[in-house]
Each structure stands twice: as C-alpha cells, then as structure tokens.
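Design job #97: recover the sequence.
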C-alpha cells in the first residue's frame, strides 16, 4: 500500500500518483514529494532506492524491524528510525509502532511495517497548517514528529492518571486488591522503562535536525522544532519521575501488606492467649491427684471463675493496646 502527495511552490497539487512517476516530478523545480509505504515488499524498497538514490545501509535498516531510535546521515539524505506509542488500559498496555523515515532535499518517505500508526492524523496536521507548506520537507517532517511526540505525551499522561488512581486506593485496598495493585504497578514500571528507551533518543534526534548544516529545516521552522524538542524533554523528564513514583508505590504496597500481616498476627496471638487460659485452668483441675476443691462443687465454681476473670482481663488488656 502506497500513498503519494505532491506539493508545488507550497501548495498541494497532486495526490495518489504512481511510484514510477516520482522521479519525473522531483525533476521539476519547486516540488516536494511525500511517499508513504505500508507493509512494503522487496520490490517497493528497490523502487524507492532507484527513484530517490537512497543509501543501501539506510534501506537495509528500514527493511529490518526493531531498530533503535536514531538519526543517520548519508550524504544528501537522512534516515530516521522512531516509534509511535499508544497506551491502553491506563498505561498497563503499551502498543508500539515502528516508523522509518527517509528525508531528502525535496522528498519525505515514510515506511511502516503495518497500519497501527495512522498516517491520516499526520495528513490532517499538514492540511490544518497551509501557511507552513512553503517550507517544504521541513514542514512535512515537523508534522510527523509532532504527531509521534504527542502520542508519547498522551501515553505518559495516561500512565500518570493510572498511577494517581492506584495511589488513591492504595491504603483502602484489602489483601486481595493489594496483589492487583502490585501487578498494575509492575506493568506500569515495565512500560515506563520501555517508553523511556523510545523517548530519550528523540532528544538527540530533534536537536540534530535543528542544526543548520543539515539544511532540512529553514529558519522559520526552527521555533516549531524547538516546540517539539520541548515536548520531548517534558516527556523524558515525566517518565523519570513516574518511574520513581511507581517504585515508591510498589515499596509502599509491600510495607502496607507487611503491616497488615503484623496486625493479623497480633490479633491471632491475642485470641490464642485468651483461649490458652481455659485450657490451662481445666488442665490443672483435670489432674488425677487431690488438690484444694477436689471432688467438690465449689472447686468447679472456683475454676470457672478463674477462667472467666483471667480471659476478660486479657481481652480488655489487648483491646486497650489495639491488639484485638
């Protein structure tokens, strides 16, 4: 599946033209081309290599998935590898989509292994900023980066909201719910670490794109890239703080469970002490030797009174200490 767009002198002129026509359009002055390939074949990679003169190492990286986020320079073009993120179930699930991007002087090529990342949202961004289309490839790349970084921002926002929910119910949860809290906190921490690996390289990537020697970003577009860079910094710092918060939640939850276990042990021990009193008294009076009150009615009343008195005294003593 391939999508194409042609901008001429800052205006959208053509859409949906075939790939073999790209080289003809690129030869025309003032044109900028966008090509999007979803689940491309080997023939598609061969076509774009020929049409755009891409470096074989960059094409090889685009063909193989699970690349690290990076920006590589190859003479007259650049290769970017990045990841779009969508958080589900309050951040406990993290859907990651890989995205490879080739940037030339007058073309932007995006390569997606699947359709999990919706390029329609990027196209809407481009169409909503018609005054910036005159800045060519820098404008197209900015819209793409802005959409990806906004996805990172929304994901970390959902994780933050989920962490606040866990914190609010942390001290009200019973023993069964504590395991759910621990499981959710572990999932959030795992996804935050994964998101951090995606976000941190974006800082260097966006910062490098703003360098003047690349000539992809015009002076007028630098403030827009600076805004994206600021969002990247906020997301990276946010993930760091949330990771610490999740760690604190896990430790606090374990401490609460330990305290609850201590309370249960105190109550069980207190009731066992009370139960031990009648056992001890009846055991003493159950001896097969004569003792005061042996074989008499008042001896039975005396043993019963001692049992009740000591048990009541222990109960109120434990109650005063909040052991029962």
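Job complete. Output follows.
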């Amino acid at each position: 599946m391939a999508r194409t767009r042609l901008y001429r002198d800052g205006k959208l002129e053509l859409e949906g033209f075939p790939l073999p026509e790209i080289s003809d359009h690129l030869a025309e002055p003032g044109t900028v081309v966008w090509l999007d390939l979803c689940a491309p074949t080997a023939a598609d990679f061969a076509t774009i290599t020929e049409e755009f003169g891409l470096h074989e190492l960059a094409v090889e990286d685009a063909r193989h998935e699970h690349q690290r986020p990076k920006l590589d320079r190859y003479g007259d073009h650049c290769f970017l590898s990045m990841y779009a993120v969508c958080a589900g179930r309050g951040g406990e699930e993290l859907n990651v989509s890989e995205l490879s991007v080739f940037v030339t002087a007058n073309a932007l090529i995006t390569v997606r292994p699947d359709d999990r990342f919706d390029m329609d949202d990027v196209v809407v961004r481009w169409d909503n900023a018609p005054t910036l289309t005159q800045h060519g490839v820098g404008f197209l790349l900015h819209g793409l980066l802005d959409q990806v970084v906004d996805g990172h921002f929304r994901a970390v926002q959902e994780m933050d909201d989920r962490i606040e929910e866990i914190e609010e119910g942390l001290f009200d949860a019973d023993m069964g719910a504590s395991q759910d809290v621990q499981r959710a906190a572990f999932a959030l921490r795992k996804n935050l670490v994964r998101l951090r690996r995606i976000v941190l390289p974006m800082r260097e990537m966006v910062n490098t794109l703003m360098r003047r020697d690349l000539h992809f970003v015009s002076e007028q577009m630098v403030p827009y890239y600076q805004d994206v860079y600021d969002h990247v910094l906020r997301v990276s710092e946010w993930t760091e703080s949330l990771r610490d918060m999740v760690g604190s939640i896990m430790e606090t939850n374990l401490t609460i469970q330990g305290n609850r276990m201590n309370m249960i042990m105190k109550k069980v021990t207190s009731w066992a002490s009370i139960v031990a009193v009648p056992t001890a008294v009846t055991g003493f009076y159950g001896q097969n030797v004569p003792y005061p009150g042996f074989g008499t009615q008042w001896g039975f009343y005396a043993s019963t009174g001692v049992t009740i008195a000591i048990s009541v005294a222990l109960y109120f003593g434990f109650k005063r200490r909040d052991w029962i």
